[in-house]
Design goal:
five-stranded mixed beta sheet; alpha+beta; DUF6389; elongated; two-stranded antiparallel sheet; 7 strands
Amino acid sequence: MNQQDYAQAVHAVLDRHTDQAAAQLRRALDALPDRVRGVTLDIFVDQGGEGFLTVRVGLEGPDLYVLNKAIAAHACLFDTTMHDDGLHPGLPLMGGDAEFPVGHVLTDTAARWLQVVWQATGHPARGLPVRIDSPEGHGRKLPVVLQ
């Protein structure tokens, strides 16, 4: 699978989860504690470049443990797990020998999807800064400032 086909396949899977992710993000934003100073939509990919993806809501402000605990039930927007029949949700599984940087492509594709998810929420973040990022440094087009 080449880079373009991979990005399209990933986008197709993510697109099927837009409504669920937007609803989950709205619930997280509705539960924001008063002391929050910012919101991040964090993209995590596996180190081996196989295609695992996790997207979580993170908060910025004092006492991160307390802040993040307030949204813990709603923080996960997307998460792949391995089962006997492959990844669930069914993202394409790549080998470590892909001819393109799987982590960057996966992250950038997820970032584009998160912009759609954000639009679907109606922007209920109380005027707080919101950005998409990859704490592990993947992606070539990050961070993206949403608000």
